[in-house]
Amino acid sequence: MITIIHDAVPGRVRLKVRGLYRCPGLKKSIESELSLESCVRKVSANVLTGNVLVFFDPVYNQRLISIALEKILFKYVPEQRKEASSDPDSFEEPGAKPSNVVKFRKKKDTIVYHPISTCAPGKPWWEMSGSDLATLFGVNPETGHNEESFKASLAKYGPNVIPETGSRSKLDIFFDQFASLPVGLLAIGAGVSAVTGGLLDAIIISSVILINGIIGFVTENEAQRTINSLKQLVHPLGEILRNGSTKRVSAEEVVCGDILILQPGSFVTADARLIEGINLSADESILTGESLPASKLSGRIEAGNIPIAERRNMVFAGTRITGGQGTALVVAVGASTEVGKIQILVAGSEPPVSPIERQLTVIG
Which of 154, 176, 189, 228 is the most exposed, having the fewest neighbouring CB atoms within 10 Å of its CB? Predict the structure, then answer.
């Protein structure tokens, strides 16, 4: 639904939005809701070109704008169109001509993004003090969230779930086995044989193609099933301070403003700004590639846009505490975390062509 047209200029991105053409209602929704993101400076949507021009703080990744924009598109469900639609899983945009109607189908494997929370007002997290952050998220660092503030934070910033691309359907996997030049040439050969009277040759070639497709399908489907089962087995837990008491919860239950309790061996469930730290160190190799643990400090860092490895007063989701102890205030969850941004980049990239695929193309 969203395509980045131009992002070469820092702090400026132009996107093509499917369904925006001749749809003033969607234009108004995009301009009003996207402007609420504190990292966004100016938004301009054009119903004639279907493009959206966004000016934002250059310290933030332009893909965060795409995430926020996609969330707005999924949210844009006018009541009159929902009632008139005969398909309960889709909706049509008002204001569009019949030839320009766009349906957003909500499947089980659709990624639904939540509001991004990484846009701090005016400055990055590492430049803000712990008290300022506590005020921003409406939490007491000594007691953590109460039930009311927890629900408010969950509704505003969303759950701590990293979006994942939906798995390929079995039908797609099966048909992909035949999407190669050698297989296509064999199929043509089988057709020619059948037309010219070589029925036995046609049957043999077709059988070879089908057997090859079945073997490839079974192999890929089993690999995908194994990967999905491994994902379901991983349920990281973290220790937080909530309602004045320590609780051990799953990563999905952590929200912005929660106070993480960091101890040796503990898993960091979300990106957080350190409030206190005593000889604290963390293994951040998953993000930085550094084999040695990174030492952490709780003071402010006045350095502007700096690499992850230099953000010494931050801890990041997916990393693990290797020494010391401390507390940290969660500032980003889900797609807003550094590991979440990587996941989004990976999901939007195309897998490279393998050497054997290149060789098969040459052979074909």
Answer: 228
Say if CB 119 and CB 40 are below 8 A apart. yes
Please answer whether residues 290 and 284 qualify as being in contact, where contact means their C-beta atoms are separated by less than 8 angstroms.
yes
Element (H, E) at 294: strand 294-295
Bridge partners (DSSP) listed for residue 46: 51
Residue 327 pLDDT level (bands cut at 50, 70, 90): very high
Look at residues 267, 272, 243 and name the one whose alpha carbon lies nearest to residue 255: 272
Question: CA-CA distance, 320 to 264, in Å (whole number)?
Answer: 8
- Averaged pLDDT, 65-92: 56
Amino acid at 246: T
pTM over 0.70: no
Distance separating alpha carbons of residues 200 and 207, to the nearest angstrom: 11
How confident is the model over 257-266, as a mean pLDDT? 91
Cα separation, 268 vs 328, in Å, equals 10
User: Which of the four pLDDT bands, split at 50, 70 and 90, describes residue 81?
Assistant: very low
Task: List beta partners, residue 247.
Answer: 240
Q: Measured between alpha carbons, how far is 10 from 7 in angstroms, rounded to an integer?
A: 7
